[in-house]
Amino acid sequence: MAAVDIPKQYKAAVYDAPGTLSTAVETLETPDPGAGEVLIHLTHSGVCHSDLGIMENSWASLPYPTQKGQVGGHEGVGTIVKMGPATENCAVKVGDRVGIKWIAGTCGSCLPCLEGADAQCHQGKISGYYTPGTFQQYVTSQADYVTPIPENLSSEDAAPMLCAGVTTYAALRRSQARSGQWVVISGAGGGLGHIAVQLASRGMAMRVIGIDAGAKEQLVRDCGAEHFIDVAKHDDQSIAEEVVKTADGLGASAIIVCTASNKAYAQSIDMLRFGGTLVCVGMPEGEPQPIGNAFPAKMVFKGITIASTAVGNRKDAIEVLDFAARGVVKTVSRLEKMEQLPNVFRDMKEGKLSGRVVMDLQ
Question: Quick one: which of 341, 319, 280, 336 has its CA closest to 161?
Answer without folding.
Answer: 319
